[in-house]
Amino acid sequence: MSERAITTEHATNVHSGTGEDGVIGEILDRLPETDRWCVEFGAWDGLNLSNTRHLIESRGYAAVLIEADPAKCVELRHVHCGAGEPGNLCGRAGNGRRRGRGVAGPARAGWHG
Questions:
Q1: Domain span at residue 55?
Q2: Is residue 65 part of a domain?
Q3: How many domains does the chain have?
Q4: Claim: this prediction has a pTM higher than 0.85
Q5: Disulfide check for 26: which of 10, 38, 68, 84 has CB 3.0–4.6 Å away?
């Protein structure tokens, strides 16, 4: 099998910052379709430099969006986990070292979906 390599020629930005939207799209076009779920760690507001937003908007993916910053997590939930996008899960998780907060999982972080 002589598949063409995925290179920077596939790089395009819709919401991503350095071509990830196009590269991820090309990879998914080559793989068999599955359940249409994606995950983003460090999702910020879910729009700015997002590597998953294009999948959500154009390919109908549901998402797990994780953000450690409490203020950005509130914004993330408002934009992506409200009535307009009921299939998504948004939450805050920390590593115990950021601003003195403990580890937060679904029960402690206030996951919304």
A1: 8-103
A2: yes
A3: 1
A4: no
A5: 10
In angstroms, the CA 41 to CA 16 distance is 14
**57-88: pLDDT as tens digits:** 999 999 999 998 888 888 888 887 765 566 78
CB-based contact 80:63 (threshold 8 Å): yes
Question: Is residue 44 one of the residues assigned to a domain?
Answer: yes
Written as one letter, the residue type at 64 is: V
Q: Which of 6-10, 14-18, 82-86, 103-107 has the highest mean pLDDT?
A: 14-18
Q: What is the DSSP string of 54-107?
A: HHHHHH--EEEEE---HHHHHHHHHHHSSTT-TT-EEE----S-STT-----HH
Residue type, 60: G
Q: Which of 48-62, 64-78, 96-110 has the highest mean pLDDT?
A: 48-62
CA neighbor of 17 nearest in space, from 38, 1, 40: 40
